[in-house]
Hints:
There is one protein chain. This protein is an all-alpha fold. Strands 1-2 form a two-stranded parallel sheet. The chain is built from 20 helices and two strands. Helix content is 66%, strand content 1%. It has helices at 2-8, 13-35, 54-57, 71-79, 85-91, 102-110, 115-143, 158-166, 170-186, 189-202, 207-219, 223-231, 234-251, 270-277, 286-312, 320-335, 345-348, 353-366, 373-386, 388-399; strands at residues 46-47, 62-63.
Amino acid sequence: MRAAAKSLLPRSPLACALAAAAAFLLWQALAVHFLYGGHWTALFYTGDRASLPPALAGRTYLWPQSDGYDGQYYRLVAHAPLLQRETVAALGSEGWRYRRILVPALSWLLAAGRPGLIDSCYIAVVAAFVFAGVWWLAAYAKLGGAPAAWGLLVLAVPATLISMQRLTIDVALVSLCAGLVYYQQRGSAGGIAAVLAAACLVRETGALLVAAACVHALLGRRRLRVLLFAACALPALAWNLFVAARLTALQQYSAAPLAVPAWMFREPVIGIVRAIFHPPTYPYPRWKEAVAQAADSLALVGVLLALALAVTWRPGKRTMLAWAAAVLFAGLTVTLSAPGVWVDINGWARPISPLYLFLALRTLSEGRWWTLSPLLLADLRLGLQLQAEPVGVIRALLSG
């Protein structure tokens, strides 16, 4: 049976990447067709309480009685990547999301700025990052003599699953993490530099990859590479300065280019422990709420286990860069500590998703499958959320 299962798995990085991207898009297409009346903009999760520019208001699927979710903001950025006044006004206090420009900018460029194509190109860009991440991780595994099917783990990382349902940008950073270790294994300084520059433009936490690469270069006594990798943060810094200046000019307030988010440095670790014993309440039947709360607590226990796995990892030469990145993202996890941060897995699992990916590389190198436990516990909770879509599709098929 095990041999039969192995034979069903794709054996090359390209086959893995194609299968992953196809599965990703198929899930979305089925949900859009059967649940959202063919409206692909439903995937951006725009709430009916959201503010939209007039050009988008009439062609946007609105979720009723909802504030929406983060994908709705990055869609607006994609439609006006140079901070046009109307879009900045619609974003309001969410204008800081312009710092995370890579996915929206690539979407606008792919559409050549044509408004009618930007939404479709955004979806294509997100799927392309899934393809790239799986290819990079599969190729990394093959270089180490492991099956290429390891690359499919990118699909199991929380950021990927959440991006599939809500078109958030975080899957791009996860994919670039896979690219980082692949180019490190290949010894390509240019590839590493390109990945680092892109990661910093995806979101601010990409800077942790720059720091990890610099630490790795220092440990290898490659001082010129330290300077090269540190310089990879400069494009993002320049963009942040531009965004701050533009927001200040348009909204008549001082926008700090490198502000520390309010959800950091409040209750290190204590916030996680408190959330384990006090999960949120849900408007579900009693039994269903109990299952959801238990899954919330288990996912947070997995976070604590992930922290322990990161700091106790004794890496070899091949995994030294992954170890440095895992420790840095473990540090980020500790700082996510303002009240309310650990309530919703959609919120806390996205920024720490690179930690799950790097710990999967520990599993790959050591063969200790239990070290995947943090990822599996997070996926258990996300699975309870995601099951609503396939269940809805099946019901639609049976009733149709």
